[in-house]
Amino acid sequence: ELISSLRSKLRMLWEERELVLSEARECAERGEELEATVRELCKPNEFERYMMFIGDLEKVVSLLLCLSSRLARVQNAMRRIDGNTDAEEKQSLNERHKLLSRQREDAKDLKENLDRRERVVSGILAKYLTDQQLQDYRRFVQLKTSLLIEQKDLEEQIKFFEEQLGNLEKSIP
C-alpha cells in the first residue's frame, strides 16, 4: 500500500514537473521576444547589460537554490548525529556546514548585487519601452525566477520520493 502511494505521488510530481517545464519553455519564448525588442530599441552596450543581467539571473538563483538545498541536507544529517556517530563524521559534517553557510552568504551577496543591477537595467529599459512592455519585462523576470524555484523544488521532491521508494522496495523480500 505504501509503495503504491509513493508511486502515485511520484506520478503526480512527474506530471507537475512536465507542466512547469512547459511553462518554462513558454517563458523562454517570451524572453526571446523581449530580447529582440530590447536589441532593436536599445544601444548595443545597454543591450549587453540587459543580456548579462538575464544570464546572471538564472545562474545566481540556481546557485542559491543549490546551496540552500545542500545546506538543508547537511543540517538534516547533523540532526541525526547520535552517540554512535564517529568523531570524524561529526567533524566532516561541521566543516561542510560551515563551508556551505559561507558559500550561501556569498551567494546572497551576489543576489543583492543582481537586484541592484536589475534596477539599473529597469531604468535603462524605462527609457525605451512602453509601460506595457516594461510590465511584460518585469513579469518575465519574476516568472523566470519563480519557475526556477518551482523546478528545483519539484526535482528535490522527486529525488526524495524516488529514494524512499527504492529503499522500501529493497527492504521487502
TrEMBL record:
Q: What is its main location?
A: cytoplasm
Q: Where is the ASD2 domain?
A: 1-173
Q: What Pfam family is a match for this entry?
A: ASD2
Stated family: Belongs to the shroom family.
Encoding gene per record: Shroom1_0
| Keyword terms | Coiled coil, Cytoplasm, Cytoskeleton
A GO term from the CC aspect: apical junction complex
What name does this protein carry? SHRM1 protein
Looking up InterPro entries in the UniProt record yields: ASD2_dom, Shroom_fam
Q: Does the keyword Transcription apply?
A: no
Q: Name residues in a coiled coil.
A: 90-120, 144-171
A GO BP entry is:
actin filament organization
- Which molecular function GO terms apply here? actin filament binding
Subcellular localization, as worded in the UniProt entry: Cytoplasm, Cytoskeleton
Q: What PANTHER family does this protein's entry cite? A: APICAL PROTEIN/SHROOM-RELATED, PROTEIN SHROOM1
Taxonomy, superkingdom: Eukaryota
